[in-house]
Amino acid sequence: MPGxxxxxxxxxxxxxxxxxxxxxxxxNITTHLEPQYIDDESSSLTNMRTSTDPGESASEVLATSLxxxxxxxxxxxxxxxxxxxxxxxFKTRRLDAKTLPCIDMATQAGYQPxxxxxxxxxTRASFLIRDDFPLxxxxxxxxxxxxxxxxxxxxxxxxxxxxxxxxxxIGIPAVELANTATTVVNPLFNTISSKQLYVISAGxxxxxDFVQVIVRRDALGLGGDSFAGDIRPHSIRLTYQGYAGxxx
Length: 248
Description:
The chain is α+β, with helices and mostly antiparallel strands. The protein has helices at residues 19-31, 45-49, 66-81, and strands spanning 90-92, 96-101, 103-104, 122-128, 142-151, 158-168, 175-185, 193-200, 210-217, 231-241, 243-246. It has two domains: 19-81, no CATH class; 92-246, Jelly Rolls (Sandwich).
């Protein structure tokens, strides 16, 4: 249907086309080509929600009208936001989901473990995956596993951490996601730093799963640890990252 407010002079046989009629009609046309007058693609809720997939590389669906262009852009908004309809508010969480203190499992010394240079000491934490957080959306959600720590010795060198990440689903044996090592060069003295150990991808864990993280210093014996000092681990942190699907 025509845009808002558009009209033209109705002519009948014998009507004299004057300059005023001619210029007025064309002025009316050009004025109503401005965006605020062009007709909408939301005349009903169904029309408002309609979107079309523009395809992928090598299988593109070419828009043949401005209406098609709008509908394809709507589709891309739903993909980017992870929502059912293009206009819905998306839910995203980039804040820490949970942080647990480290426990010294080697000495049972409470909540202040110390990775002493040259000694085999580990710390661990377990996390329950929250059931109110979607782990799979149009854009996947990932979970970052990080170690918060600081150096207790003002010196330089490379610290090597071994880490193990396991996921436990109720009624199913635990699955080991990672068992490897990572290094930190010249850890900061008396300054808490964060080291990403692992990223759990979408679909790897389910709601109400337990994730267990174990961290040791130089336990693999690979000779990659040259830091002549002690490291204080503060906590192990799980951070949800990315889009979390439809808002609720």
